[in-house]
Amino acid sequence: MTSSVFLEQVKIALRSIRAQWLRTLLTVTIIGTGIMALMSMITATKALQSSLIEQFIGLGAGTIQISQRNDQGSFKGRRLGQSDPLTFQQAMDLKSALKNVAPTSVSARGTMMGRLARSSEETDPNVLVVGGDEGFLPMSEYDLRTGRNFTAEEVRRNAPLVILGQAAVDKLFSPAENPVDQDIRIRNRRYRVVGVLAEQGASFGMSQDNQAILPVGEIHARFSGRRTSYSIQVKSPDPEQIGPLSELIIGEMRAIRGDLPGSEDSFRLTRSDALIDQFNQGLSSVTYAALFLGLITLLGSSIGLTNIMLVTVTERTGEIGLRKALGASSYTIQTQFLVEVVIIGLLGGIVGILLGIGVGNMVANQLNAPFALPWDWVIVSLCLSGIVSLGSGYYPARRAAQLDPIESLRHA
């Protein structure tokens, strides 16, 4: 087929599409719905992936976290459960052992239902109260809007100091007030505000601004319970040496915890690089699930498109007979219908892509994820639109091409 003949068929297809705009609109809607379902799920997944990977990277390359093991299921026929908490002393012992090896930070969660008060003002009982040492803020990638961090000496002597998140500050202080060097109360104990965190937004669906950070010893002295467990973060000076450093930490921690030779570790060690790999694997499964659901929707759309094209062939039987009588070949008739259905399919694909990106980013916005535009899936969706429309239109186009011109002219 020459380019001039193909262009002529495109012009005829466009005229036919304009003449039957209502049916075209219905067909575009059918294809667009399938593509929109696929693109909205993929876009939301990609946005969530970007957001969470950003948060994981915020932990820093070469970061190792040691925490309480909380396994589910069984191992070698034996049911696994939650290990004993990592105690304050064990955490401090590991920090001491790594003093000349790598930067180490100890932290713990005091309560998620803390209430902060100042004069007649107080917060709701939903403030996250955590404890950290002098390395907690830099290790957690927290920035200070104003004020300063704890010093090692203040952490050592459990100084009654606090660093507040912006949401807690907004509850207790007016915009004109400087919170630094002001006193607040937590559980009837006075704490001097030494710093205010820069706004963090949400992480994993939880606000990072509604929190109060105390010296970790204060958590141990005033918030600890029998099940309170401490976390240790270690920053490898050389990300390439994270493997040997992990082995060293495991050996030190097993000795501190008294794990017997040959037994499982009674704690969990998580490397930032492994965490990102695990997360990407999980999101790949979500992406495949989204693709499967989108393809199912497209399958339903293709059936609807086939039915509409069959109706179109029936209604245009007279036109087909007239064109054949004037010398058009069966191949030309078939190609004409295929060109029409592919153009309609691509129009539906474009509409579906635009709507899908919009819907997907609306969902992502609710999860505080950034705007996402998955160009690779835009191309895939356009290809799918063409393939689905071509597949759906082949049988009706073939049927149109096989119509007897004499019988067809009776419908003219």
Folded structure, characterized:
With 412 residues, the chain is of the alpha+beta class. The chain folds into two domains: 3-55 and 278-409, no CATH class; 69-266, no CATH class. It has helices at residues 3-19, 21-58, 88-97, 136-139, 152-156, 166-172, 216-223, 242-257, 272-315, 317-325, 330-366, 375-401, 405-409, and strands at residues 63-67, 74-75, 78-79, 104-114, 116-118, 121-122, 127-132, 144-147, 161-164, 183-186, 189-197, 202-203, 206-207, 211-215, 230-235, 268-271. Helix 1 packs across helix 11, helix 2 (21-58) runs antiparallel to helix 12 (375-401) and helix 3 crosses helix 8. The chain starts with a helix and ends with a helix. The relative contact order is 0.19. Residues 72-79 have low confidence and may be disordered.
Q: Pairing-aware structural class of the strands and helices?
A: alpha+beta
Q: Over the alpha carbons, how many angstroms does the gyration radius reach?
A: 32 Å
Oligomer: single chain
Any idea what the shape is? elongated
Helix content: 55-70%
Distance between the termini: 28 Å
Low-pLDDT residue intervals, each spanning 5 or more residues: 72-79
Largest sheet: 12 strands, mixed
Q: In what range is the share of β-strand residues?
A: 15-25%
What is the count of distinct domains?
A: 2
Number of helices: 13
Mean pLDDT: 83
The total of beta strands comes to 16
N-to-C order of helices and strands? HHEEEHEEEEHEHEHEEEEEHEHEHHHHH
